[in-house]
Amino acid sequence: SYNPDTSKALLMWSEGNSEWSLNGAMVTINTTTGALTVGSAVEFFSGDNGSGSDGYPHWNAGLYPTATYDTNVDRYFVTYGMNGNAYNHAGLKGFVCYNNTGTSISSGSHSFIRENGYVYGAGNYYVTAMGAENKMAVTYFHRAYGSGGSEDTGTSGNRGYWTHLITVAASSFTITLSYKHMNDHAEGNAGITWDEGVDRLVQTYNESDSHAHIRVCQWDSSAGEITFGTATEYETAAGDNGGAGHFAMPYYWAAAGKVAIVQSVTSTQDASATAQGLYLRLATATGGGTNTIAVSSNRTLLYNARLSSTEVCIYEFTAGNLDDKLIVT
Fold it and tell me: What tens digit of pLDDT does each residue of 187-243 get?
């Protein structure tokens, strides 16, 4: 995650095999030459392979360890998935990084945002900073398990599609609001971005029938609640129950004033018979009292093979020769 105030970025990664750890390093970017200076690696969490009591950070289920910078408090909010023996330590954790002006970094305590079950999100794009609202939004699907290790398929439990609003402080965070949208889960496809043009959240997700949806959400700070707009179904039978091979990543492209949707398509399940591959689509959100979004029918082919969400990253440059360009890697 890039900090525009100091031209620094927090690089995150997890290690398996004998390490089973979550790590990070501060990167200083020379905005003139493009040269990078990488600080010393910091081990934020050291776990086990699931055989012990600690659990371990995991990078499957379409969910990366992600650092999101909050300019309001000058902090990084870090989220990462966990796995563990009999699902006792599985879930989604978060913590706050601070003292990030140099090449080193400090961190606060780690807390579960959701525990006891697998958590699925769209790569790095299941967390977003909400501009001047001083909030983070997190969205994901939760495949819940009970204490005995059996899957919890009940409608009254934690299984389903969730959104949280989170307030980041000096060295900790609090969950301000929690919403459960549906009782089912669709693996690998829950994304969110902040559209600063209309000051609205935009969510992408799959329902259990594999149909891809998008909607606009309005945060009312005075009332302390979110209003969810009507969802638009923009892709039918787009993926295999939302598995890791199908995803839709939303990203607000400021120069275009649009939400860019980077999505995979599985040819055998796409109703419009579009060849499988990685595509870019644009969507226009409307705020005010409308809170709707229109997705363009035009798809730009980026890559002619299906990719998983852990293989794709999106970024908009705001300076230099690539100013205002959207980069997909």
Answer: 557 899 999 999 999 999 887 777 788 999 999 999 999 999 999 888 764 554 344
User: In sequence order, what are the beta bridge partners of 158?
Assistant: none
CB atoms within 10 A of CB 162: 22
Rounded to whole angstroms, the maximal C-alpha distance in the chain is 56
Query: pLDDT grade, residue 58 (50/70/90)?
Result: confident
Strands 248-253 and 232-235: unpaired
Whole-number Å distance between alpha carbons of 165 and 134: 10
- In the predicted model, is pLDDT for residue 244 greater than 50? no
Give the helix ranges, DSSP H, for the chain.
Answer: none
| Residue 182 CA: distances (Å) to CA of 99, 221, 239 | 39, 24, 19
Q: What is the pLDDT of residues 143-201, one digit of tens each?
A: 887 766 778 877 777 888 999 999 999 999 999 999 998 887 765 578 999 999 999 99
Query: Taking Cα atoms as reference points, which of 214, 242, 328 lies closest to residue 280?
Result: 328
Instruction: Return the residue matching tokens 């997705």.
Output: 295
Exposure string for 16-52, b = 16+ CB within 10 A, e = fewer: eeeebbbbbbbbbbeeeeeeeeebeebebbebebbee
Is the torsion defined by CA of 3, 198, 172, 51 positive or negative?
Answer: negative
